[in-house]
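Hey, quick one: can you model this chain's 3D structure?
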Amino acid sequence: MGLVRGLLAAVLLALAALPARAASVSWTGAAAGDWDVGTNWSGGIVPGAADDVSIAGAFVVAYATDPVLAVNSLTLGAGATLAVSTGIAVSSYVEVQSGGVLQADAAVGLDAGDFDLRAGSSLSYAGAPAAPSPSLSLVVSGAFTLEAGATATVAGTGYAGGAH
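Sure thing. Here's the predicted structure for all 164 residues.
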């Protein structure tokens, strides 16, 4: 009996040591909502660093919680807007499809393996003009694709009135 328990314990420890598998998680919440509410996501749990996240359709999703938003991959479909004010860390890729918007509105960092802005999509940064050092840091360790018809807009940097 002791041998069986020992083997069972060893198997359970080995299984616990396996890395977590990435889940495909999609937005199922209302037309406007908060990233940090589990019931807004398929599976009922807020996406984590190992998850592949998709927001498709005319949804506006806000993320304003520390720490930075961390996922494996992020796809914003037509009509989807993700508004972030604390940063994004994406292990694999970010794809903003036609009609999708990724909006940063504070001093944030966007860090991704690959970053694709498809035709008709946009990346916008509108830092508060009175902030001491509003900035957008975009770090892409792989390919950065800005297709014809996509836009990347940076506005509101520096102090109000141009004073530094």
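One thing worth noting: Confidence is low (pLDDT under 50) at residues 6-19, 158-164.
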